[in-house]
Amino acid sequence: MVDPAPQPETIVLRAGRLSHEAFAPFGHLPADEGTEHDRADAEFLWNDGHVNFISHRADEVSIGDTGLLCELLNRHDTHTQTLMPMDATCIVVVAPAELDLSRRDHIDAARAFVVEPYECIHLDRGTWHWGPYPIDAPSVRVFNLQGTGYARDNGVASLTTDLGVVIEVDATSTRPGATYEIA
Predict the structure, then answer these.
(1) Does a structural domain hold residue 155?
(2) Which residue spans within the chain are E strands per DSSP?
(3) Which range of residues forms the domain containing residue 107?
(4) What are 141-157's pLDDT values in tens digits?
(5) Of 49, 51, 101, 137, which one has the fewest beta carbons inside 10 Å?
C-alpha cells in the first residue's frame, strides 16, 4: 500500500484593506498627481510595456474552509505591474521582492488584501503576487499594465510543492457575510 501524500500545512492570512502604508513593502497605490504618495513609476527593463485587460475566474483556484487557497506566487524581475479589477471584488496575496521564498519563514512576510473594483495596485519589480481572484463573482476583468515578455520573466514559487504550505485567504473580517462560493 502506498502512503498518501502529506497534506500541506495551511497558513491562514486575514485579508486587509488597502492603504498606502500597508501596501508599501510590495509597491504603491497610484495616487493623485503631485501628492505625497504619487510614486507609482512604471519600469520596463526590456522596454516592453503593454496595457491590456486580463481576466481571472473563481474556478481557477481552490476554496478552503474560510477562503481561497493560494498555492503559488509569481514574480517579474524586469518590470513593474499595475492591476485594477473592473467589475468584481478580489483578493491578492503579495510578498516582498527581496525574499526568494525558499524557506518556510519567508511566508511570514506575505500579506493578503481585498481589492475592490477600480482600486488599483502597482507592484514593484520582483514583488511576489497571486491574483487578483474574484470573491463575489464568477470572474473578474482586470486592467493590466505589464511587460509583454512576462512569460520569459515569470518566477514561480510553488508553496505546496516546495515548502509544503498553502495560504488560505480569509477575507471575512473585511467582507462580512462573504461565502467564497463559486457562482
Answers:
(1) yes
(2) 9-14, 16-17, 27-28, 49-57, 62-63, 67-70, 72-75, 81-85, 90-95, 111-115, 121-123, 128-134, 139-147, 155-158, 165-170
(3) 14-32+40-170
(4) 999 999 999 889 889 99
(5) 51
